[in-house]
Amino acid sequence: xxxxxxxTIGGDLxxxxxxxxxxxITGERILGPPGDPGAAxxxxxxxxxxxxxxxxxxxxxxxxxxxxxxxxxLHPYPDGLVIATKGGLRRTASGDWPxxxxxxxxxxxxxxxxRRLRVERIDLYQLHAPDxxxxxxxxxxxxxxxQDEGKVRHVGVSNVSPSELERARAVVDVVTVQNRYSVAxxxxxxxxxxxxxxxxxxxxxxxxxxxxxxxxxxxxDDVARAHGATxxxxxxxxxxxxxxxxxxxxxxxxxxxxxxxxxxADIELDREAVKRLxxxx
Length: 281
What we know:
Blueprint lengths: L5 E4 L3 E4 L3 E2 L15 H13 L4 E3 L8 H10 L7 E6 L15 H15 L4 E6 L8 H13 L3 E7 L3 H8 L4 E7 L8 H10 L2 E5 L13 H8 L4 H12 L12 H9 L7 H10 L1
Parallel strand pairs: 3-4, 4-5, 5-6, 6-7, 7-8, 8-9
Antiparallel strand pairs: 1-2
């Protein structure tokens, strides 16, 4: 991975721009432990061996399973490894993701993440989603208090609109936004633009969504074949070329797929290819 492909979160956390999302190391439907916990731990160690130094997780993945596996596999953490986690969603046995942004709940979530990750301070703690039943300012106020107490280094938000991002920034210094975004899904274009203007890291979740663009003979398929790559690799390469604040975190439970994803960081797309794919969606 080219050393130039880095971004500094919050002014002091330099990360390679292709990270790893640790949602899929849990059991089926993101519930319970994986069928082979040892394989999940080996995968996490391989993530670090490949030079990835941003791992994103959440207390709701499992729930709690992903954070526990990360600590089991990687603690004590190597220098420079950034573990980002999130609070504000629950994961129910029925597979739902209800939002819970109450300040007292978020503080409990953070304390639990600190214990599971075996750290005294979380490098990047993110509100997983605004809760329509709780004023956004109250939820972010709790994260600001955690930051003031030294339990959180930097604060991020997820699944927000441009206006919600503005409201969040009025409460606390927001250093990252994690929204759904991919070559096939640009609904967060406005939020990405604001992140670019403010120097905020943009973490696209579901970055490998390609839709009809990857159909045989489609634009993504054509560009991928021209670069000797897969459509998924081109989807990641396009994101990296799309914006200097873009921090994709593709997730997988497969070491082979992990290595394919990481290799996407070395694909150079010219302006014509970036434009073609942008206009095709």
